[in-house]
Amino acid sequence: MGEPTWTREKLQLLVQREIGDYKLIVVSNRQPYVHDLIGGELSYASPAGGVTTAIDPLMQECGGTWVAFGGGRGDWLAVDETNRIQVPPDDPSYTLKLVWLSEHQQQGYYYGFSNEGLWPLCHNAFIEPTFKTSDWEMYREVNREFATQVLDEIDGRPAAVFTQDYHLALLPRLLREADPDIITGQFWHIPWPTYEIFRICPWADELLDGLLGNDLLGFHIGDHCDNFMEAAARVLGSQVHDEYNLVYHKEDPTLVRQFPISVDFEGISLESQSPEVAAEAESLIEKMGLEDKIIGLGIDRIDYTKGIPHRIRAFGRFLEKYPQYIGKVVFIQAGVMSRTDIGAYQLLAEQVDEELEKVNSRFGMGDWAPIMYLPDDLPAVTLAAFRRMAHFCVVSSLHDGMNLVAKEYVASRFDEDGVLILSPFTGAASELTDAVIVNPYATDDFADAICEAVEMPYEMRHERMVGMRSVVEENNIYNWAARLFVDLMQGTRRSRRPIRSF
């Protein structure tokens, strides 16, 4: 493979050229560096994820400010009297400003409206959204608090504000009302639902109005852009200019574009080849008794959108239909529990346990179980080793904006081997067409797809993996950041010029 079009270094050069006199402000719920107290000592960690991977080097180059909720146990001790700290800690180059939220605010804004309301609303996983007026009021309050902190950072200077995700949908409008000269962009990391689904939200008009305070609004795929523009037209009566993907609301244009997010291909590929990961893989194979086994893998946050019970049922059906593989094929399901205070996630945990018991009690032999469930926050080296070991990886999301696990598996396979089984309901399915695509609701087809992955000849595995690796290498995380940054700094300036050919 040749050198990809976009690298970290090329992204940094782009930022140098485009940023000019503007101060870049990134705003997100999650912080890029979390501080903790371990044994009385202050330490830090950088959460895994595409946002930090993409935006951290951009921020290091332009020296801007990242505004985020301070959720680490050691954050209070790390910041100065203005709630700021220079990061990265080992080589400071930009400012992290933390916003403090009370337990009551977190409950209403984050666990309530964001994750019991917006999350199920935007994902077709058949979990009914919960809309409480008190949660909505807290969501508005926290968005106003973020706006206050961002405006304090800008202090009247030229600025571009790049907001992340669904927690801060009202922020762009608040900023535009305070200072119309601020360039505002936002990336919505989860799906945007169809109009018929979105309209059930009691505050649909206020959410749309908030998001249309952006100059630029990005989604993973074109369908999500189309859904958003239809909602804007039908809920607010906004004028939609299809040719330019522009939405006019309150006389102001918002550019709506697709930007499929990705991963650091080179970094993941090199990590997978490291001696540490190789040693971890050897150790895991020995400790887990996997020496002669065909290994399947699932790595997910334990969320009802990921289709984990469907995956377990399909693996049980695979063993039932193809009993010659009992004792020969093992499935490892790794992932961390999340949002355990929310009822839907408690029910999911019970459902997963029930499905596991059915399969393992029926097909297990002695101490051996066909499915090994590891619902723990595993070290990065262990997850990398699992990706390196796995003969096939299953991503069976019921609905996903993109799904970076699929791309991480592909990037990790420097040996150009392995099979990806992928749900068509992920954004990644439109890019990774060499995966085995299967509907997670179709249990028998799903079982057959697992058999196809197990029995696929090396030549076909190799050809498919080479194709997928080429896609992920070219469309890497730096490509995503560069395209967004160019449209934010150049495209939005152009779109502010009137285009009125309706």
| CATH-scheme architecture of the largest domain | 3-Layer(aba) Sandwich
- The count of strands amounts to 18
Overall spatial form: globular
In total, the number of domains comes to 2
- Gap from first CA to last CA: 46 Å
Distinct helical segment count: 18
Note poorly predicted spans. 497-502
Q: What is the class of the largest domain in the CATH system? A: Alpha Beta
CATH superfamily of the largest domain: Glycogen Phosphorylase B
What is the structural class? alpha/beta
- Which strand order do you get reading across the main beta sheet? 5-6-4-1-7-8-9-12-11-10
Notes on the protein architecture:
- The chain contains 18 helices and 18 strands.
- The protein has helices at 8-19, 50-62, 75-78, 103-122, 133-154, 171-178, 195-198, 204-211, 222-236, 265-272, 275-287, 308-321, 343-363, 380-389, 404-412, 443-455, 458-474, 477-495; strands spanning 23-28, 34-38, 41-45, 65-69, 84-87, 94-99, 159-164, 183-187, 216-219, 239-241, 246-249, 252-258, 294-299, 329-334, 371-374, 392-395, 419-422, 436-437.
- The strands form three sheets. It has a ten-stranded mixed sheet, with helices on both faces. A six-stranded parallel sheet has the order 15-14-13-16-17-18, sandwiched between helices.
- The chain has two domains: 8-262 and 479-495, Glycogen Phosphorylase B (Rossmann fold, 3-Layer(aba) Sandwich); 265-474, Rossmann fold, CATH 3.40.50.
- It is globular, with a radius of gyration of 23 Å.
- Mean pLDDT is 93; it is low at 497-502.
- Helix content is 46%, strand content 17%.
- It is α/β, with parallel strands linked by helices and 502 residues long.
